Structure prediction request, 319 residues.
Amino acid sequence: MSLPAIFQGRLSLPVIASPMFIVSTPELVIEQCKAGIVGTMPSLNAREADQFKPYLVRIKQELADYAAVNPGKPVAPYGINLIVHKTNNRLEHDLEVCVRQKVPLIITSLGASKTVIDKIHAYGGIVLHDVVNMRHARKAISEGVDGLIPVCAGAGGHAGALSPFAIVRELRTFYSGIIALSGAISDGAGVLGALAMGADFAYIGSRFIATQESGAKPEYKQMVVEANAADIIYTPLFTGVPANYLRPTIVNAGLDPENLPHREKDTMSFAEGNPRPKAWRDVWGCGQGIGTVTDIPATADLVARMAAQYAEAKKRICA
Ligand SMILES: Cc1cc2nc3c(=O)[nH]c(=O)nc-3n(C[C@H](O)[C@H](O)[C@H](O)COP(=O)(O)O)c2cc1C
Prediction:
């Protein structure tokens, strides 16, 4: 299928920079879009509800100003991640702001909802939905999403356990909508690999933690530079949903990564003055694809580097 009009002629690389709690700041989103990849952030990164609209207004204005003075450059559309779950008491408010601001791309997580999708479609927006298995994928398709984000083994934050080869090829036996492949993609060769498999986009998170504009603390960025795939621990312990985290932050929280308590016993394990460490704040999320990360560049430089790697990988396999 051809990509929807909002993406056409507006990308320098087929990449969606994924939304990351705390990490994805408006500055990061703006730099990603200016560099020609889709920049996104969770609505909840506006820590107060009334901050959210000003964030969107700023992103829209800075991108419009940049496009006006750089008419020949692709400036990508931006996106917002909404957590569609009963525990998110901001959903109704944030959805309403997205509708009024006509956010071009909405990424829904946890729940695929026809009501939400219809509201986005009514103004011409596009909805992609996170899935970790075929059951979730079929449900999201039946609700009317425009595309799927298979969150595969090794992805940062909440992640599935399926191989990307398995899930993308199985999806393509019956699904021709947009696929943005997620999980441990960190460079241009990985982007080309995702497309070769049948995806339309690579969906990249952890690599952008270690950039100048990310909202991660300096120690977090440095840990991503120093860590490798072996330093990533997959556990449901901290949120109830299996996710990938940086091992040193689990150790710093006083836990043994090889002998983590079971989730169902956690109230006992963490009782009495030793509260359960908080995911994202104390225990830092990260995917397995960070073995190639050796620096903390400006986002514009990182995207230019990825584009060169992508071209190089294409040349190598076509030679
Ligand atoms: C620190 C961190 C926070 C994340 N927060 C969110 C979030 O708030 N909403 C969401 O849909 N996905 C979130 N994710 C998952 C990413 O959007 C994406 O699926 C993942 O980063 C892709 O895998 P990669 O990190 O290996 O590139 C988070 C990932 C990380 C590493």
Remarks:
- The longest helix spans residues 49-69.
